[in-house]
């Protein structure tokens, strides 16, 4: 029986490249001249540091633009609240990996409500979709892409 998996992943190598590009861009930007600002990547967490909250927002926008250029879905970004320590502001940005349980249940409900003849099962942090026809699976993929659940989904393990 044809099947595929619905997952939510990010490429950490591309995230690292985007952080490096943002760091280089930070050195050339006029609005950051003479300002102590930094962007660092530690495992799956990006840390933004600057002297003002406005500069943190600008850094986050620069990072988002570089992530888009690198093909990383920016909906996976999960920014924490701003933190102030002395005269410096900081913000941690984590990346959501895997389909969490509430989102998986919403996705299963949407697929079942669409009356497409497929079976969906939740397997940890991914969903397995099986059906008799390849066309039904492709219709399910289209449905998932159009669903706005605040996450980017990828499809892998397509078996015919």
From TrEMBL:
Fetch the CDD domains from UniProt.
YajQ_like
What is the native source organism of this protein?
Psychromonas aquatilis
Q: Which residues form the signal peptide?
A: none
* Recorded family membership: Belongs to the YajQ family.
Tell me which SUPFAM superfamilies the record gives. Answer: YajQ-like (SSF89963)
Purpose of the protein: Nucleotide-binding protein.
Q: Which UniProt keywords apply?
A: Nucleotide-binding
Protein name per Swiss-Prot or TrEMBL = Nucleotide-binding protein V6256_07455
Origin: domain of life:
Bacteria
């Amino acid at each position: 029986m044809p099947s595929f998996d619905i997952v939510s992943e990010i490429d950490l190598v591309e995230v690292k490249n985007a952080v490096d590009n943002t760091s280089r861009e930070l050195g050339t930007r006029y609005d950051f001249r003479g300002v102590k600002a930094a962007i660092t990547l530690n495992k799956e967490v990006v840390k933004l540091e600057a002297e003002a909250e406005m500069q943190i927002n600008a850094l986050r926008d620069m990072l988002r633009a570089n992530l888009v250029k690198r093909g990383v879905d920016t909906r996976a970004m999960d920014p924490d609240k701003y933190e102030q320590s002395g005269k410096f502001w900081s913000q941690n940005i984590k990346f959501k990996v895997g389909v969490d349980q509430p989102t998986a249940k919403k996705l299963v409900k949407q697929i079942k409500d669409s009356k497409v003849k497929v079976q969906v099962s939740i397997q940890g942090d991914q969903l397995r979709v099986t059906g008799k026809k390849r066309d039904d699976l492709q219709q399910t993929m289209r449905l998932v892409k159009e669903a706005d659940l605040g996450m980017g989904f990828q499809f892998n393990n397509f078996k015919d």
